[in-house]
């Protein structure tokens, strides 16, 4: 089943009055349960494409349809609600709330959704144990390593049981062991909970794990390969 349908997507910026086509006519479908890497050199449009899919940036032209909803047409408030209930985000910079513990960070989206305290606490505990941080859930981000903070970010992205997760360079700041652990966790969650993962990445280790690799160049799809 198609979970994301992108048609003729374009994003154009002005740079000293010269138009720059960050995304230039991209059409792409993502099936439920995919584990997809979007790759390409710096400036190829990877992050811009992910941000448009996630409703964090507006397209200049084209459409993004998620579960039958054309998100370009949603009001700002409805788009915020849609993101909160359908999309999990993992950012390169983690974006954890520094005054919250790991557990409170994971609970935060569920709190915004109005989930009961008992449910929030149980779900956060379950996810932090799943990512190997069961004994560190009461620590604040400053007391966690980069790899541990990224695992908290993954747990937070999954807390609301999103339809899919967008991960922008999730391993960029991690060492080899942390990267391997994080990818194993994501792959396991993909297989067991059928959560769709879409990565933008330069990391060959992510590409090796991905079952589909979409290569961008100058804002266009250069190749789209599904591994056998």
From TrEMBL:
Residues 4-228 form the ABC transporter domain. Coiled coil: none annotated. This is Putative ABC transport system ATP-binding protein. Pfam families: ABC_tran. Keywords: ATP-binding, Nucleotide-binding, Transport. Belongs to the ABC transporter superfamily. Macrolide exporter (TC 3.A.1.122) family. It comes from the Bacteria. GO terms for cellular component: membrane protein complex; plasma membrane. InterPro entries: AAA+_ATPase, ABC_transporter-like_ATP-bd, ABC_transporter-like_CS, ABC_transpr_LolD-like, MacB-like_ATP-bd, P-loop_NTPase. Transmembrane segments: none annotated. One of its GO terms (molecular function) is ATP hydrolysis activity. The lineage of its organism: Bacteria, Pseudomonadati, Bacteroidota, Bacteroidia, Marinilabiliales. SMART domains: AAA.
């Amino acid at each position: 089943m198609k979970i994301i349908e992108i048609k003729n997507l374009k994003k154009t910026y002005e740079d000293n009055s010269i138009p720059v086509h960050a995304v230039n006519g991209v059409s792409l479908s993502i099936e439920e349960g995919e584990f997809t890497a979007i790759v390409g050199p710096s400036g190829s449009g990877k992050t811009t494409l992910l941000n448009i899919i996630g409703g964090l940036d507006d397209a200049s032209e084209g459409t993004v349809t998620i579960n039958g909803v054309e998100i370009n047409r949603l009001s700002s408030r409805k788009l915020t609600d849609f993101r909160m209930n359908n999309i999990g985000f993992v950012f390169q910079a983690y974006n954890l709330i520094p005054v919250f513990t790991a557990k409170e960070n994971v609970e935060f989206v569920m709190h915004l959704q109005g989930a009961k305290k008992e449910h929030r606490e149980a779900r956060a505990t379950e996810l932090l144990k799943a990512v190997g941080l069961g004994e560190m859930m009461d620590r604040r981000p400053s007391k966690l390593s980069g790899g541990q903070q990224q695992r908290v970010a993954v747990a937070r992205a999954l807390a609301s049981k999103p339809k899919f997760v967008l991960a922008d360079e999730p391993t960029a700041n991690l060492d080899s062991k942390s990267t391997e652990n994080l990818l194993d966790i994501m792959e396991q969650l993909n297989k067991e909970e059928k959560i769709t993962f879409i990565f933008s990445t330069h990391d060959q280790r992510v590409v090796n794990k991905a079952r589909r690799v979409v290569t961008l160049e100058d804002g266009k799809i250069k190749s789209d390969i599904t591994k056998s």
